[in-house]
Amino acid sequence: MLYSKIFSKTSKTTASDADSVNARLLTQAGFIQKQMAGVYIFLPLGLRVLNKIENIIREEMEKLGACEVLMPTLTQEDSWQKTKRADLDILFHLKGRGEAKLVLNPTHEEVITPLMKNFVASYRDLPFSAFQFQNKFRNEPRAKSGLLRGREFLMKDLYSFHADEKNLDIFYEKAKKTYVNVYKRLGIGKQTFLTYASGGSFSKFSHEFQTICEAGEDTIYLCDKCKVAINQEIIDIQKTCPICNGSDLRQEKAAEAGNIFKLRTKFSEPFNLTYKTAEGKDNFVEMGCYGIGLSRAMGIIVELFHDDKGIIWPENVAPFQIHLMALGKEKNVAEEAQKIYQQMQKKGIEVLYDDRADVSAGEKFAVADLIGLPYRVVISEKTLAKKSVELKKRTQTKADLIPTQKIIKTLSSYEP
Amino acid sequence: MLYSKIFSKTSKTTASDADSVNARLLTQAGFIQKQMAGVYIFLPLGLRVLNKIENIIREEMEKLGACEVLMPTLTQEDSWQKTKRADLDILFHLKGRGEAKLVLNPTHEEVITPLMKNFVASYRDLPFSAFQFQNKFRNEPRAKSGLLRGREFLMKDLYSFHADEKNLDIFYEKAKKTYVNVYKRLGIGKQTFLTYASGGSFSKFSHEFQTICEAGEDTIYLCDKCKVAINQEIIDIQKTCPICNGSDLRQEKAAEAGNIFKLRTKFSEPFNLTYKTAEGKDNFVEMGCYGIGLSRAMGIIVELFHDDKGIIWPENVAPFQIHLMALGKEKNVAEEAQKIYQQMQKKGIEVLYDDRADVSAGEKFAVADLIGLPYRVVISEKTLAKKSVELKKRTQTKADLIPTQKIIKTLSSYEP
After folding, report:
1. Cβ within 8 Å, pair B7-A152
2. What are the tens digits of pLDDT across the range A182-209?
3. Which residue on chain B is closest to A112 by alpha carbon?
4. Cβ of B41 and A74 within 8 Å?
5. What is the ipTM of this complex?
6. CATH number of the domain to which A341 belongs
7. Nearest-CA distance from A93 to chain B in Å?
8. SS3 for A154?
9. Residues A328, A195: one domain?
C-alpha cells in the first residue's frame, strides 16, 4: 500500500489527552484517533492490526470446534432483569419506541442463553459452543489507559454448553490451551500468565490471562516455577501457588488479556435452558464463557513492544511486514523502488511504500520507527551504486546491504 | 462443514411474528433469529452470507481507491447539535458518565467530518475517500419487513472528500458504476435500477438504487428504455425520464438497496473542514456519501430468489456451494459420502454435508430446498450401484447422474 494514499498521518506532537503509552504511540503513528473518553476510531493501519488479531483468534476458535455467530448490541432490559444484572453499574440504558427499556450489551449471556432454547432439546444436542466478534459497551466510571479500558470495544466472546460439569471441565481445559496458543501467536505469550481469580457464586476460581505490564490495572502474584499467578483480589483466601503450594510469589503489575469462567447453571436457570437426559429427565445446561478483548490486546502489545522512537510490532500482528522507502529525488531511485514495490506485491509480501517525494530521509526514518513495521527496506543512490538495498529489522540498529536481486527471496523467507 | 455441528436448525413451523418472506424463510432455514423488532441474531449460515456480501463490497470499494476504517457507535450529542440533526426522530439517545449526552450513530458524517480535520490541510491531501462496515442504529417508528427495515443493522458507508464540485462529480459517477458492479455481483443487478430521488438543500437530486420487489416500501416509476427510475417522492417535480425525457414510465414496488448523495459542503461548513488552495485561500471541502445496507441486501436477495420450498441463493452469496447428503443407513454409502466430502474440502469447494444418520431422505431433501444452496449432491445405494452420484441444481427439478470419479472435476468447473 502507498503511504501517500493511506488515511493516516504521523504526528510529532503528543495527543494532548493521551493517558498511556499505547494511546500516545497509536495516535501519533496514525493507527487510532480518540472520539471521546474510552471510544476510538480505527484508522486503516489500526484496523489492519485489529483484523490480524481477529483472524488469529478465529482460527483458534475454529480449531476448538466453535461456530461463529453475530449477536446484536440492542437488547430488552427484561432479559437483564431476569438475571438480576439490570442494575449493573456499567450498563448503558436507553429507550426504544413506546418507552421500551433497552440496554447495550456489555456481554452476551443474556442473548445466547435464551437463543439456545431453540437449539438444545436433548443430550444429543450437547456439547456445543459458539463465538462472535462484537462490540461491547460498558459505561466505565473512568475510561483510561487508552485501549486498555474502553467504553466501546471489540471483543471475542465464546460460550460453551454441556450436559454435565465433567464435560464442561474437559472443554474448559481445552479452552485454556487455546488461549495459551492465542497469546503465543499474538506475540505476548512469554509475558502472559494463567491467573487464578474470584470465581463468583458457583465456582471456587475463575481464570484470567494476565500480561505483565506497567500500565496494567491489576496486581498479580506470580509463581515463577509453575508460571501461574494469583490475582490480588483473592490473595487473602489463596496465599500460595495453587499448583505447587509454594509461597515464593513475585508481585507484578498486569493487564487482563482475557478471562474464562465456569458459569455452571447461573444463566441456564433464570432462562430455564434445560435438556432431556437419555433417561428423559430435564436437566439444566452447564455453561462456560471465554472472553478476549481485541482492541485491549492491541493496546497491551504496544505497551510491551515499543522504544523511545515508536512501536515495535510482532510480525504476526504487524499491519504490514515491510516499510519500503526511496531516499533522494533521483528518478532512477524512485523507479527502482517502484519496481521492488511491485515485485513484493506480486509475491504477496505485505508492504507499506513511503512514496512521498518531498520528504527528507530523516523524516522517513522517523516515521518508519514510529509506525514500527518489522522490516525496513531503503533504496538510495548509494545502495543503487552497489546494486543493493538496505535491509534493517526494527529491533536492530545496523542495516545490512542485500543485493537487489536477492531481496525478494530474502524477505519471502522472513514471512511469519 | 457438517450440518450436525452447525448452530442451525431448520424449522417447519412459521416464525409466529415473521412479517415478511425474508424473515420467515431465513428464520425457518436457520440463518437468523429475531432478538426484538428490527434486531436480529445472525446464526452461522446467515453470518456466512453477510461475510460474502461484505467481501464483494470491500473488493469494489478498494478498486475505487477507498481506505477502510472503523468508526464507533457512541458519539457525543454535541456533534449532532452542530449539524442540527440532534432532533432526528430516529436517533437513539443515552446518557454516559456525568450525565454526558450521547447518541448511537445512525450514519457517520458527524464522526468522519471532524476526523478529517486532522488529515486534510491542503489541496494536496484531496481527493480522498474512506469506507467502513459498521452497525447502524435507527429508532424506526415501525421496524418491519424482516431484514428490510431494521433498528440495528450492518451497513457499508463510504465518504468522499474533494477540492471542488467538479472533482466530486467525477468521483460520484465512478461510485455509480461501482454500485452497479456490486449489485451485479450480488445477483440482483437485473432487478436493481438507478433511481432519481430528492436531493435535499444542496443538490437537485440524490440517487438511490432501487430493487423491484413486492415487499419493498418504495414506489418507483421506471423508464424501460433508459433503465432508470424516479422515486414517487419527486414524481410531481420530475414527471418524465431524466435521460430521454419520455413519459412512458412503469410503476413498480421497490426496496432501496443503496443510496448515494452529493453532500457538497453541508457537513464541512458546520465542522469548518477547509483546505488551502494552491493560491493559499481557505475553501470548504466538498463531500459525497454512499451507503449500502448489507443485512438489507440479504433480505432483498431472499425476497427475489425463493420458491414455495425455500430460498434459492445466487452462487456469489450462497453460504456454501454444495449441499451434500447420504441417503439410507448403509455403511458403504456413508463412507463414500465422507470420502467425497473430504475430497471437496481438499479442493476448496464450499460444502455443507448433512451427515445426520437418523433422518429420512424426504426430510433431508426438504432441508436442502429450504436452505437453498446452488447445488445438491446425493449419494445412495442406488447411485453407488452405478458408481455415480446425483447432482441437481436448486433451480432444476431433475437430477443428473455423474460418475463418482468425475464429480469433483464437474463441481470445480461450476465454482462462481
Report:
1. no
2. 999 999 999 999 999 998 766 788 999 9
3. B41
4. no
5. 0.95
6. 3.40.50.800
7. 7
8. strand
9. no
